## 1
Amino acid sequence: MASKDDNFNLKWRAYIEFRTILKIQPVQIFSELQEILCVDCPSRSTVERWAARFRSGDADVTDFPRSGRLASATTSENIALIESTVMEDKCITVNQLEQSMEISSGAIHTILTTELGYRSICGKWVPYKLSENQRLARLNITKKLLETYENCDSRRLTEIITGDETWVYYSTPYSKYKKRSWVRGDEQPAKIPRPDFRKPKIMYTIFFSSHGIVLQLPCESGKVVTATFFTEQVLPNLIKNIEKYRPKTGTEGMKILIDNASSYTAKLTKNFLGVEGLELLPHPPYSPDLAPCNFWLFPKLKIYLQGKDFNTLQALGTGLYQYFKSIPEEEYKNVFYKWVERLKLCVSAGGDYFE
């Protein structure tokens, strides 16, 4: 195969021009060029770009003249100036640098990436902006938990039951990413309605252990979990279910891992747990990244619910139950090891968010 010199490029551009005149779609032209040129075939985006150019009436198969970069642009003075500017404002854009320095954006990009080793990345979302006291509280509590669970026998992890509440919609549309589709030419993608957060929903309280789901309990329609509901409905049912799969020992030695929601930290809740002999494990403040429901179960549940429609509460409850039962027990076990690993990451980050 001939090398990709100018004459070679002119030939495949001419081919695209003639096929475009015959109203052949770019995707078909690209497929034909793949068969003809094999590894020397231009990319699909290149074929589409040239086809669009020819459709606009431009019959020139040569490249537009390109503005070059002066060799003198990458000087030690410019490199030093860009570095000091970026150090002052890490969010400054290439366009802003171009306007202030009067050198090309290409030269600035080369200096940033090649000479200075920078790369542009988006900021990371974190659950909260931690104060110094909150960061230290996360650090101290995770250290305390690791004293017990870092090198513990696996049996100790089976004594933990963790849970939280979450809103569940009776009808959940697919996300737009789930509905990606292949289209040709000007064909339009599928239209996905935005989620309607006014649709019927119900709050579920869900608890699980290393053996699987222990409790899924809906709250009264439109209501949220209060300390009264938690102590009169959730905990009694949780204890009853624990005693079913631990008929000999019941709740003896069991630990409850929940976050710091007001219904969980209320005096009423603590008194109830004390009477029942259930130990409440400490949980760092503002730490959904350390709550197994938040970093594992609920994200999985939301994906499962996409595209599902439930007409009744019973149908919804059955759907949730069947989904939770379909998750292998090994996954439930592994999430508690992941929890310990996340505690370590939190300590390594000095109590700050680590992802």
Note: The beta strands are 160-169, 201-209, 212-218, 255-257, 279-280.
## 2
Amino acid sequence: MQNSMLLRCCHSMAILPSSSVISPPRPRWSLSPRRHVSIFTTSLTSFPFPSTSQTIARALSFFSNNSDNFSNSDPIDTYPSKQSPLKPGLYLVGTPIGNLEDITLRALRVLKSADVILSEDTRHSGKLLQHYCIKTPLLSYHKFNESQREQIVLKRLLDGEIVALISDAGTPGISDPGMELAKLCVDKSIPVIPVPGPSALVAALSASGLSTNEFTFVGFLPKHTGTRRERLIVSANEAATQVFFVPPHKLTQFLEDASSIFGDSRRCVIAREMTKIHEEFWRGTLGEAKQAFSAHKPKGEITLLIEGMTISKNETLTESQLENELRELISKGYSLSMAVKLVAAGTLMKRKAIYSLALEKFGKQIESDSDGN
């Protein structure tokens, strides 16, 4: 009885070094308030209390033996969110563009908590969900069934469900399915919540070495040759860095068109397979790129950046120079307003002044051409 009471009294001192000698406290079970009865017949050093080094060794052994439990724990549980439960709505969730580690804890929480995940390719996205042990059901949602799925998804959202939308890589709705659904939800006053994440656009731009003060994201060019060249002409006359998404099998054609419109000396950066094992940033001029990739056919998604046109602050064109540029563009089939827009992009002159000149010089010519047709 005395021994068990003794152990309870000394339990809190068990982590003290064995070399410590402590005067025993007055026991609460003294037989008489006037008579001190000591129950300590020896010093504390005689008890087998563990030393500090022994205590640390035992703790390290525990964590070592249970390391698998810690390493395989759910990252959402390891870093619990302090936010309140998710509210119903459409969540646009950014996912890795190559490296599975590039996903946020918030994205994992949303994907785990959603009622359904809309996915561009369920097989591709299934690998991501399997990697993070997420069991939320997937529903295919891509450009070929987007219009058919909209009403089904809208009904689920109106019923108060949490719907997450992901693309194969990056942020949904940016050159990927999702834009129309987001617009529809906004029109119906359904919350649209962005969950920021990886972006090929921002990743390539930040590491390009080109100006990031101002840039234009063009994305994928139109398939029609005339429309594609027209868009390149607009980009060639802008001072901002131009950013394109280019399929690998169309890179050669893109470089041919771009070098003829931007000029061979314009600098460019070709970012390929970003965040993956074979990540590559090729830097040089459009002329050098055309030569380098004429024989070498790259693989993987490509983000291509072209530096903006350098415009001197004192650069102004004479009336004859303006007239020549307008005439050349109109002869190529551009409308008067488009010709004015393109010329104005390459000079500091006001578009209104250029438009007045264009009407004066070519207004009657365009009217007569229209009458003839």
Note: The mean pLDDT is 81.
